[in-house]
Amino acid sequence: MSTMYKLKNMSDSRILITGGMGFIGSTLAHKLLSLEANVTLYDAMLPWYGGNPANIREIKDKVRFIKGDTRNFKLLSKSVKDTDVILNLAAQVSHPISMSHPLLDIDINCVGNLNVLEACRRFNDDATVVYSGTRGQVGEALYLPVDEKHPDNPLDINGIDKLAAEKYHLLYNRVYGIPTTSVRVGNTYGPRHQMKHGHYGVLNYFIRKAMLGETIKVYGDGKQTRDYCYVDDVADALILAAQKKSAIGEVFLIGSGEMIKFIDMVRKVIEIVGKGSYKLAPFPPGRREINVRNYYTTNRKIKSILGWEPRTSLEDGLRKTIAFYREKLKEYI
Ligand SMILES: NC(=O)c1ccc[n+]([C@@H]2O[C@H](COP(=O)([O-])OP(=O)(O)OC[C@H]3O[C@@H](n4cnc5c(N)ncnc54)[C@H](O)[C@@H]3O)[C@@H](O)[C@H]2O)c1
Fold this sequence. Notes:
alpha/beta, two-stranded parallel sheet, UDP-glucose 4-epimerase, EC 5.1.3.2, NAD(P)-bd_dom_sf, Epimerase_deHydtase, isomerase
């Protein structure tokens, strides 16, 4: 694994993280504080998602928290002023929920993101905005590994809305000159992910099931392939995108570079936890149709432009994640 990039000190930067109390947002907050940045978290703490006070317990006196929704334009407009960088992560993150509640998904993922951009255009058009897109924007891979030239054919409402939001970001760069970038994040796991349910972030949810000695249901034959990226690596990619001017106007795909069969990931979780079991089960109605069969990505573009490469192997990442939940599971379920 590479160690080629180095994150710069950010003591002169004021950073706003939307969705900052969640899994990736709070990991960013920890890292940015270690780079001496001035950090504000903007999060609606919607009950179904990963916002959790435990995520920032050790740093709560060092960050500012605004309880706010990206759909609240007035509050957002106030909050984007006096900010140098916006790491724009607030989202409806679940693929199945986007199908059962399509208007909620549009509301948060389209209207919410347009609000962030409009607030910047009107009140702070110098702010650098880094958007966290998703592998779900690509849909079923026509070739592997997927790269930035791959066509986008999302299989669900979430992928469509996240793609629209990415395009809003690029448009606001092209037309209004706001420095925006999109980093399309793949399946991410690690400490601080919610463990309440398995509607998204299933690897983390499987850790919970294994730790409680339960049976993990694997839908289909388990042979679909995935690329699981450790959260620290994802946070580094987002920070690098904010630090480097060469990222502006670009879209990057990121992943671990390690392809693994779904069933093998489950077996690895059970092996490292030392408990739990699995069984194959049919997809629930409507789930197969939105399940991408195979995905993994090359990191060639982000490596050549930003110098980023994943540093954490699945084995090491799982061990760190499981060690975290051995201490803190109760705060996440
Ligand atoms: N975790 C992954 O595997 C993954 C994969 C691809 C993309 N992403 C993207 O990364 C970003 C962060 O996801 P995460 O995994 O940290 O999820 P998370 O659920 O842990 O965090 C999302 C946070 O956003 C907040 N939020 C939701 N709607 C909001 C709104 N309207 N206004 C303000 N806050 C709101 C939630 O309260 C939560 O704290 C999202 O944009 C997601 O689409 C994540």
